[in-house]
Amino acid sequence: MLDASQAWELLRTIRSEAEAEAAGLLRTGESESESEGQGQSQGQGRSESQSESEGEGGGEGVSDANGNGNADAQKHSRQWQGKPGNISPEADALLDRYLPLCLAGPQVTFAQLGQSLDGFIATRTGDADYVTGEEDRGHLHRLRALADAVVVGAGTAVADDPKLTVRACSGANPVRVVLDPHGRVPLRRGVFTDGSAPTLWVVGAGHENGRAVPDGVDVLSLPDGDAFAPRNLVRTLARRGLGRVLIEGGGITVSRFLHERALHRLYVTVAPVLLGDGIPGIRFAGPELMRDALRPRIRRSALGEDTLFDLDLDLDLDLDLDLGRDLGRVAGFDPGSGGGLRTTPGGEPLADEHADTGQTRGEGEHSVHHGDGQTQ
Ligand SMILES: NC(=O)c1ccc[n+]([C@@H]2O[C@H](COP(=O)([O-])OP(=O)(O)OC[C@H]3O[C@@H](n4cnc5c(N)ncnc54)[C@H](OP(=O)(O)O)[C@@H]3O)[C@@H](O)[C@H]2O)c1
Questions:
Q1: Which end of the chain is flanked by fewer CB atoms within 10 Å, N or C?
Q2: What predicted TM-score, i.e. pTM, was given to this entire model?
Q3: Euclidean distance between CA atoms 292 and 290, whole angstroms
């Protein structure tokens, strides 16, 4: 019997379909399950009611945003094969939830936010302890363990002083990446000083100001706003061997990666709590009409009292690591190509973020030397 901890250890080693098949976890092919109105079961043809009794994996289903199973979902469905009767329900739930991410390969960008029912990720004072429950914390730590790098925006680094390490499950700590174009995150923050994992401080040129950086922290000084464009950041990290990237918040950072088509998957955990006001989660220049809304393929599952939405953004991101392409057009992603973001006509940036994207990429983020003598 494959139990949950064995399934998790297997998941941590898998980065391709071949590896999943070799581990006996994957049998590719069309899903045999039927559409059930509220979404299509994706786990070994189980019924919704069976799934609901399985704790962490309860209530799983794949559907479009209208709650209907669809042809596209069926086409992409796979059956996670742990040999019926030979796998515990908890292990089955883990495979259902994380195998799609593992199968995305060594280069995948994914984000996670925990929010209130009314769409806030923190109170109006910035308190986010905790929006979602213990199960979601476990999920977040699993996502970290599957990532090479975990990225936060300056707002989160300032407000939360997060550790960004893997503590609720087994797994290696990812490299911690702080996006700080204006150098406003104090260097006494734990992410820079606790030494529990490597940290990359990504700062705008001139804002590092020769400040002494603690050992174990690498500084990446980027020349201009375009180098901070999400796709360019993904490429920059990939060139450093950081191909699997978790964008952990906050709302501005995740929204920008989503809006600029740099995310493969987005996990949103919704807690049954109303805040009325607060720090918003996903915000981007939305469509005028509902028919133009982004409707990604989703899977839902229960995380204790919370509900996890796993959005497959169907991104075909060619990292093109030798660069040199005009990346400006990605912000104006063609909404007619099926299920993508509809932006304002010019692909304008969000109202509350820097307006310096959408340019041809300037070459040459440059390196600085610091503490341990490494160049990054
Ligand atoms: N519930 C959750 O899941 C969750 C998760 C994380 C955080 N939070 C909460 O969210 C709040 C912070 O979120 P937030 O939306 O206000 O801020 P944020 O996303 O953490 O940080 C945004 C800032 O990061 C920098 N940044 C991020 N991406 C960038 C890019 N591609 N290019 C250039 N700069 C970039 C910018 O810094 P500058 O402003 O200096 O230009 C930007 O304004 C906190 O209260 C925290 O507690 C909640």
A1: N
A2: 0.79
A3: 5
Is residue 373 assigned to a domain?
A: no
Token pair listed for 245: 């990237």
Same domain, 95 and 122: no
- Decide: 160 in ligand 1 pocket, CB within 6 A: yes
Q: Extract long-range pairs of 35-38: CB within 8 Å, 24+ residues apart.
A: 35/68, 35/69, 35/70, 36/61, 36/69, 37/67, 37/68, 37/69, 38/63, 38/67
Closest ligand 1 atom to Cα of 233: 31
Residue appearing with tokens 């794949």: 62
Does the Cβ of 114 fall within 6 Å of ligand 1? yes
Domain identity same for 35 and 114? no
Q: Is the CB of 179 under 6 A from ligand 1?
A: yes
- Residues 251 and 359 occupy one common structural domain: yes
Query: 290 is in which domain, residue-wise?
Result: 108-367
Q: Is 60 in the pocket of ligand 1 (CB under 6 A)?
A: no
Q: Both 182 and 223 in a single domain? A: yes
pLDDT per residue as tens, the chain (376 positions):
889 999 999 999 999 888 888 887 766 554 433 333 333 333 333 333 333 333 344 444 444 444 444 444 444 444 555 444 588 999 989 999 999 999 998 999 999 999 999 999 999 999 999 999 999 999 999 999 999 999 999 999 999 999 999 999 999 999 999 999 999 999 999 999 999 999 999 999 999 877 789 988 999 999 999 999 999 999 999 999 999 999 999 999 999 999 999 999 999 999 999 999 999 999 999 999 999 999 999 999 999 999 999 999 988 776 665 433 333 222 222 222 322 333 223 233 333 333 222 222 222 233 322 323 232 2
**159 Cα: distance to centroid of ligand 1 (angstroms):** 9
Q: Final residue of a domain: which of 87, 103, 119? A: 103
